[in-house]
Amino acid sequence: MYSDINEPQNRLSKDAVKVWIIRDTISNIIWFIVLGILLYLDYRFSWKEWIGWILKGLIPISVLGAVWSWIRPFLLYKSWRFDINEDFLQLKSGVLNEEHQLVPMTKIQSVSTNQGPLLRKYGLCSVSIETMGSSHSIPALPKEDAIELRNQIAYYAKIKEVES
82-157 belongs to which CATH class? Predict the structure, then answer.
């Protein structure tokens, strides 16, 4: 019946990579500051020896995580695809574990656009789609495209604005 469903082709904005790198870098800086403070406190107050070993063991793990956070956005961007038609919203993503979702338009209850400070800096929005049992998101689309996509999904899903 639906054997003619093609792979999704639409991509995210190329600026998504910049946003993800900046967000991950901020998180990494905060983590390294916290780890540094804990290491200093361990040195200053001579905590139990095993605490120092755990903190020192977190250093290489954190460095590997920081390196991965610079590689991951490029792989995410390369793998993220989406498409919509009158019947389905298709989402395809995943770096190591590829995920392909088909969301029936008849199950969509609400759709919205979101824009945090980093997305706003680059003129991007994410689109959030809610169904009865799950929520989905399409990150980092140009604002005009996100609004158009939101409106198109709302039209296909026959979402009505509630007047108060």
Answer: mainly beta
